[in-house]
Please model this.
Amino acid sequence: MTHLVETIAKSLVDRPEEVFVAESEERDGTVIKLSVAKDDMGKVIGKQGRIAKAIRTVVKAKAAKENKNVTVEIGRDDEEPVTEE
Model:
């Protein structure tokens, strides 16, 4: 699943070398944390969060096929992640 998020993110940003994806197992399921350069945050989030929602939709669709619960958090290491409300 991390490879999917990484591939999507790298295709969106200007600095693909600064894309970092980490996966961790939580009580409620898997959490994928996407971190990009500060200048690329807008490209990954999109206007009104549309790109971020699309990324989450694709990941949730793949997770549903595998009967998994996956959450995607977008942010940088030095700030709070952007989570879906």
